[in-house]
Design a protein that fits this description.
single chain; 379 residues; alpha/beta; TIM Barrel; eight-stranded parallel β-barrel; 14 helices; 46% helix; globular; binds 2-acetamido-2-deoxy-beta-D-glucopyranose
């Protein structure tokens, strides 16, 4: 019994699947990070913050709203950074990466930007906005979602105020200004419904990226948001096919806003098993796509998920429920990351020493858990 007790303690110390953490294993498996969005209303929730700041859990954070145009320049030429800074400061303190989000988007856009402007005027408006906002966060952002959601589902360019004034040049212009303002940030194009190969929107996005790069702008990455629905989520193969296509035009890919919502609530145990499977397709696809650098969930707890507000009657889309219990999807993801790390599916991205330690941990853990299972089976 003493031996059993010691094994239990050892297993718990090393981290059983139930306590094991996402970013630690994502890095050991060769990803740059496993991240989460964080929104300002959650900042004074201590239970929430303990998890959000846990660098073994999340290696990257994304301000859910704080850096959007409506928050940073709600009236022309008057910039405010309070909401964005509150979240960027967490990353400064913890050393987490910051995925900055987003500079040019048609939504949460202040009314004054939506007036009708000449091409020159809009060009100046965009430049001023990016120079100020990306300038303010210069050096802090691992990546910037420079342009968000510029393409419609049918493959046409979205007729937003920027497009109406400048045509597709607004995208080229935005990426050029962002590159001048914060040269070390990875510059991303970010959108939804560009996960399942290969719809009209994916094809149009691919063409748009080529056009913009041919016009002299740098685009480093494509962010696939990855909002999807339990039981209707793309398969790993569909996801990988898209990434193979996008890999031809950019150096990096990432899932930037993952949540997988139930269409009927409350979710049953079987629904949550299906949700776990759906999450695994995404994580598995990222692990198997050489250019996929990381995965961000669009918040980690149902308590702060945007889904119920957007899709009435749907939800429970996150890895933790609203009472902070981890769902089956959480432990499934950790197990998958652990096996990828142990199998050396791709080379670990953390420093060689850290990677070796993480792998040694992984092996030790598998051994301990296996031994423990054997002992328990005999007892
Ligand atoms: C997207 O492009 C691929 C490859 O060129 C093509 O096979 C497919 O039919 C296209 N899809 C649509 C919806 O246009």
């Amino acid at each position: 019994m003493i031996r059993l007790f010691q094994l239990l303690v050892l297993a718990i110390t090393l981290g059983t699947p139930a306590t094991c953490q996402l970013d630690k294993w994502a890095k050991a498996a060769g990803l740059k990070y496993f991240g989460t969005a964080v929104d300002n209303p959650a900042l004074n929730n201590q239970g929430y913050m303990k998890i959000a700041r846990d660098t073994d859990e999340f290696g990257s954070i994304t301000p859910a709203n704080g850096q959007k145009w409506s928050n940073t320049e709600s009236s022309q030429g008057r910039f405010s950074y309070g909401s964005g800074d509150a979240i960027a400061n967490i990353a400064k303190q913890t050393g987490q990466l910051l995925r900055c989000h987003t500079l040019v988007w048609y939504n949460q856009l202040p009314g004054w930007v939506s007036s009708s402007y000449s091409k020159d005027q809009m060009q100046r408006i965009i430049a001023t906005h990016i120079q100020n906002v990306a300038g303010h966060y210069k050096g802090q952002c691992y990546a910037w979602d420079v342009v968000n959601e510029a393409v419609e589902d049918d493959g046409k360019m979205r007729q937003n105020p920027m497009y109406k004034a400048m045509g597709i040049d607004y995208i080229t212009h935005s990426f050029k200004i962002a590159a001048q303002t914060d040269p070390t940030a990875k510059l991303y194009y970010n959108d939804f419904n560009i996960e399942r190969c290969c719809n009209a929107k994916i094809n149009a996005t691919y063409d748009m990226i080529k056009t913009v790069k041919a016009a002299g702008a740098r685009i480093d990455g494509i962010g696939m948001q990855g909002h999807s629905r339990v039981g209707k989520s793309p398969s790993k193969k569909e996801l990988k096919d898209t990434m193979a296509k996008f890999s031809q035009v950019v150096d990096e890919l990432a899932y930037t806003e993952i949540d997988i919502r139930h269409l009927k609530l409350p979710a049953s145990a079987a629904d949550n098993q299906q949700q776990a499977k759906d999450y695994l397709e995404v994580v598995g696809a990222c692990l198997e796509a050489p250019k996929c650098v990381g995965i961000t969930v669009w918040d980690f707890t149902d308590q702060y998920s945007w889904i119920p507000g957007q899709y009435s009657g749907e939800g429970e889309a996150c890895l933790w429920d609203r009472s902070y219990n981890k769902k089956p999807a959480y432990s499934s993801i950790v197990s998958l990351l652990q096996s990828a790390a142990t199998a050396g599916l791709r080379s670990a991205t953390s420093s060689p020493t850290a990677a070796v330690t993480a792998r040694a941990d992984a092996t030790a853990e598998v051994v301990v858990v296996t031994t423990l299972a054997t002992v328990l089976a005999r007892a």
